[in-house]
Amino acid sequence: MMKVDGIVLGYAFVSSLVSAAGAFTTVNLQIRNNLQHLSRTACTVLPTGDDHIIEPSDFQDQHREHQDNSKRNLLKFLANGVGASVVLPSFVSPALAMYTDPNSKILLPSEGEIQSSLPTTWDKDDNPFVDLDKSSFSRLDETPDTKFYQDPRFTEHVDEQAVQSMTNFIASNDVLKENDSVLDMCSSWTSHISPSTKAKYNLERVAGLGMNEEELKSNSILNNDYTTVDLNTKPDVKLPYDDESFNVVLCQLSIDYLIHPLNIMREVGRILKPGGKVIIIFSNRLFLQKAVGLWTGKDDVDHVYTVASYLNYCQDGLFTKIMARDLSVREKKKGRGGERMVVGDPLYAVIGEKASS
């Protein structure tokens, strides 16, 4: 959302700005002052040709009670109203205990908030995705993804310490077990699985599914076990794997680009073995023009709830033990009472386990 004179302007308005500027394939730097307030999420924009930060958003630190019902209602409101032109500011106040980093001006969750952001029980009647229109998952750039990703990008999309945190987490026994078969969905030139990790767990298979063949060929951990598929072509797209093929499915820094996430999560459930895990890792860095509207109007706690909702509501009872982890690197900073604050790019994971038959 973009705030102008106390009013938050919606996704459709910003989309028209980008369209008018001719910036469907790249974020036009001439309109960055308009886009810098696109949302309270403080999503960091990745230009298509360079991965430095353009502008962080600068919403002031606010606090409010962060109850399950208000979270669900906010998600429904944003989902249904993403195409509207005006959103009242009261609907987009930050989550409990979130703070604005004084240097970057980015809104971030306090330590422990991510882990406690999900409900302990889920209600079928609370499904926020019922009767959504297509605009909820529309994007500023609706050109085919095959065009956007046709040129390889041999670069990381989060900073070095976030990469290390992600690599360490994937290497832990919270993710991998002996003889696991792993699918890296939305893969690229790296899966953040080291040769030593593959050897440690004696991984039976590490397969990759992505968009750019040159990147996938360069991913040595895949050993040429890869497939190129555009998951955004049609709602009923099928993953090219047999039922119950994998113990683990990874989705790294890509969930915000999927326009049919509920269908994809059902497919993930199909190809996972009973008791297998899906690990969805994300940050607040993104290619703004390819992120879905439902994502860009939220803070990081909302992102966690949204991803967890994908897993819970994609199919009744398919995933259990849905939980969230804050993988961000944190250090103590002066003036915050000894609280450890996020340093560099934040990083989060949502984990779900396929229910046993």
From TrEMBL:
GO molecular function: S-adenosylmethionine-dependent methyltransferase activity
Residue ranges annotated for the Methyltransferase type domain, each copy included: 202-280
InterPro entries according to UniProt: Methyltransf_11, SAM-dependent_MTases_sf
Gene3D superfamilies in the cross-refs: Vaccinia Virus protein VP39
CDD domains for this protein: AdoMet_MTases
PANTHER family in alphabetical order: OS04G0481300 PROTEIN, OSJNBB0011N17.9 PROTEIN
Protein name in the entry: Methyltransferase type 11 domain-containing protein
Species for this entry: Chaetoceros debilis
